[in-house]
UniProtKB/TrEMBL annotation:
Organism for this UniProt entry: Kribbella karoonensis
Residues spanning the membrane: 58-83, 113-132, 138-161, 173-193, 226-246
Annotated protein name in UniProt: Transport permease protein
Domain named ABC transmembrane type-2: residues: 23-252
Family per similarity comment: Belongs to the ABC-2 integral membrane protein family.
Keyword presence, Chaperone: no
Pfam families hit by this protein: ABC2_membrane (PF01061)
Main location class: membrane
Protein localization: Cell membrane; Membrane
Coiled coil: none
Record has Transmembrane as a keyword: yes
InterPro entries tied to this protein: ABC2_TM, ABC2_TM_bact-type, ABC_2_transport, Nod_factor_ABC_transporter
Length: 254
């Protein structure tokens, strides 16, 4: 109970900071919205090709990729905020408190998850007038996956930020990782429509299976192999991400 209380205290402080300065959250949502309004209409003429016979609605293919992208990149760069806190002496002050090191991380990650889920809901609402149709059960499970992805990438981002302690080192590292993940996960377009060599290369990315799983959920195929594999990979990634983040917070805040 003590850890939960300390997590809530850290979460409450982090959430108040986000509400006082919501510009970062707005900027992170603006990119998926631009993809939605400027790139989405281009998919309608090739709906039959990208749907692979599953659906006639291009947005059932495109929107799942966008919310996964939001879960990934919305949390991948939160480490910059932690570096700013480190430079301001906040992390040093945390070290002298008896608070659990797990709570110091979990409270921040929980804030990031809440922000990402709210952003995902807003993105889904914006897509409804454009023609998005999906079963509610699949959409809710997809939001759970986004929350788990957010927890994974936020934990890893905080971990790398604590190790590097420099924006100059963190920025090129994250940008170098982000581009291959974006291109090989099939977020913008399904990898099935690409050449065989690119499909084989993308198979090594767990995020491709997560994206395919969310697309299956949006079709209503909750018990399909694609959705189950997506859930498996996102749970595994979450366990790894939280474990790495917790270990780093213990070590760096000792």
């Amino acid at each position: 109970m003590t850890v939960l209380r300390e997590t809530w205290i850290v979460f409450h402080r982090a959430m108040r900071m986000s509400l006082r300065n919501p510009m970062w959250s707005i900027l992170m949502l603006s990119q998926p919205l631009m993809y939605l309004f400027l790139f989405g209409p281009l998919l309608k003429p090739i709906t039959a090709q990208i749907s692979q016979g599953h659906t006639t609605n291009a947005y059932q293919v495109f929107i799942p990729g966008l919310i996964v992208q939001l879960g990934m990149f919305g949390a991948m760069f939160v480490g910059f905020g932690l570096i700013a806190e480190y430079r301001a002496g906040v992390i040093e002050a945390d070290r002298v408190t008896p608070a659990s090191r797990i709570a110091l991380m979990a409270g921040r990650v929980l804030r990031d998850v809440v922000v990402l889920v709210v952003q995902s809901v807003l993105l889904l609402l914006a897509a409804l007038p454009l023609g998005l149709r999906a079963p509610w059960g699949g959409v809710l499970l997809s939001l759970v996956i986004v929350a788990l992805l957010g927890a994974t990438f936020a934990s890893l981002s905080y971990s790398v930020a604590l190790i590097t302690k420099s924006e100059d080192a963190l920025a090129p590292l994250l940008n170098g990782i982000a581009m291959p993940l974006l291109l090989l996960s099939g977020i913008l377009l399904p990898m099935q429509i690409g050449p065989k060599w690119l499909q084989r290369l993308s198979d090594i990315s767990p995020l491709k299976h997560v994206v395919n799983g969310v697309r299956a959920l949006f079709r209503g195929d909750i018990t399909s192999s694609a959705s189950l594999w997506g859930l498996f990979w996102v749970v595994l990634l979450t366990i790894i991400g939280l474990a790495v983040g917790a270990r780093t917070f213990r070590k760096e805040s000792a």
